[in-house]
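[job 0412] stage=fold_complex status=start
inputs:
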Amino acid sequence: MISFSPTEEQKMIVNTVKQFANDYMRKKFRECDEEGKIPTDIIDTSWELGLVVSCIPEHLGGAGWAHSAVTGTLIAEELAWGDLAMAMNILAPSLAILPIVEMGTEEQKQQYLPRLCESKFKAATAAFIEPRYNFDPSELSTTAVRKTGYALNGSKCYVPLADEAEFMLIYAKEGTANQCFIVDKGKEGLEIGERDKLMGIKALPCFHLQLKDCTIPLENRLGGNNGCDFNRLVNLSRVALSAMAVGVARGALEFARDYARERHAFGEPIGSRQAIAFMLAEMAMDIDAARLMNWEAAWKLDRREDATREASLAEMYAADMVMRSTDYAVQIMGGHGYIRDNPVELWFRNGRGFTIFTGMAIV
Amino acid sequence: MIDFELSPEEKKSVEWAHEIAEKYFRPVSRYYDEHEHEEPWDLINTMWERRGEGGLMGLGIDGALRTEELCWGDAGLALAMPGPGLGGAAVFAAGTQEQWGKFLSRFNEGKPKWGAMAMTEPGCGSDTSAITTTAVRDGDYWVINGEKIFVTFGHRALDLSDGIIVVWATIDKSAGRAGMKSFVVEAKTPGVRVEKLERKLGIRASDTATVIFDNCRVPFNHILGKAEVKTKTEGFKGAMATFDATRPIVAAMALGVMRAALDMLRDVLEKEGIRINYGAPRSKQSALERDFMEMEANYKAARLLTLRAIWMMMNGIPNALESSMAKAKAGRAATLITQRAVELMGPLGYSREYLFEKFMRDAKINDIFEGTGQINTLIVARHVLNFTRDQLK
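[job 0412] stage=fold_complex status=done
writing structure:
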């Protein structure tokens, strides 16, 4: 039966996250962007919500909730509404947790998951994106060669929290297939490079890394002999980022709307002019459409069906939508939108990233 | 729970409509495009006889999805099929249960019948509150006078069947929008006549009539809603409530046309060995692939906005904003997608040997009727800004 209504439980989770985003993230996001760091107390407070460890089985220290991509998109939208950089920081451990919970061997689960189930935030991450203009997830240039262990070679970038991660997943090509490998902190041959200097999400520490014959045990290939379902992981990332795009755009719409109601020109609110009002209407329609497309893709993933088509279309639509919406928000505010005292220029910078960010979050 | 799965009954009903569209509509699609005003009687009678099997276009999720399928077959022919239509929707949205029985039961018995709605006048289109047609009370009757244009099904409702036409008129000019009411006029009522049939860019199998009301007398209880002019906008709200129900249906029609173009385009490309590589990054997509994906994404966006608006209506959730969103998005998407399909197919797209050019002509009406894209965008903007019509004109 077609339904567009989240469950009562999902509504409760959304309300909790919304409250947190409003009370904590929204109070500090400008300062964080300017200073390039996020206060640990915000991250620790978010940790208490249990968002990322909830899907870890109880006997390994988690809450043992069934994983749902739909619920994940609802959470990601609210967090990104609060602030995109913080949202990515808060959800970064999921980049390692979710693939292991879904596809890891029993040994991998027991070895790695309990390490993140502590009272304070523990970083873990994944290295996916590679520093080339024509980066293609299906054609990774990082390689894994099977010898006595796996030897990893290549370079990655945009790896969130790489410096403090307890362990990370590294995506690489083994033969003709893309696989995922679990690499411990400080492993020889894993060189954490300089922090990436990015246009947006400046509060989130992201790093370049080099893999120079980084050799890991054979049993550290995600899923062991079975390997992983790479496509599914990419699609789970697509819906995560699209949900975040919706959250960012919604923030921009709300801010521009309030401004258009209050700012007067020629004796009336600028929102009384169709040139302004129609931009807001277009934003509202595109935001809703992007959210619904993303829900459908996530719903398909929850049914364990291939959602490459839905997730790719949702991702493309959401990335276009968030760029246009944040651009309109700056435009509606005119000169004031360009000033760093107002948040829309920050959202505009963040908005540009969604054609690039796939692989930096997962739900 | 968020869910996109159709029930087995809905699935069956959609499949039924698709089969009808493919088997009966498509083969005669070009013929009735090129023979405007010729009645497709065989098709009409077949569909009337088979109406009990799955229902035609209609309200509800399954009704919208059937609408999409039938318009996938041919949007003009879908708008020629007998049934209660927009007139029926108005009765359903604004009428009493007694009126449902009196005016709607005919659509389930006897010969084929059509229902029409008359709103637009020569002097007013989008500004529906400016209508000049009048209804004056005379004892147990209303006397209606005025001229209505662009009445879809007008000819079939009045001349070819014992149908109904719902006409919007003012009972008190001084009351402005509050004085607007709708009335059911049955076929063969003295004083109502079809003056002319329009010749159109597309959806040519659909009749678009000018209807004259010349001292047309209808019984008092043919008014939909209350006869008193009470609150400021009550009458107008009746019209708007009808639109909340019908706009998503028109959006569903647009969905059918755009998917027809997309499906045909995909078929041609596949025959040429071109497959859309969905997961590929932008730097590795051809312009054609990118165009196709954008078209498909916009189709999906329009479709989900439409289904949401209908789902809200069926669950009793106010959907004025969402139905305008669906209509604005679907009308625009259909217009642009079909234009792009003609462009991508080059000389084949422009040729009347193929249906691409027809899809483009048929699609355009979806950006116009039942509220233009601009009017619906204006409604969305007012909701977003929480502005009245005086604050945002």
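[job 0412] summary: The mean pLDDT of chain B is 92.
[job 0412] exit 0
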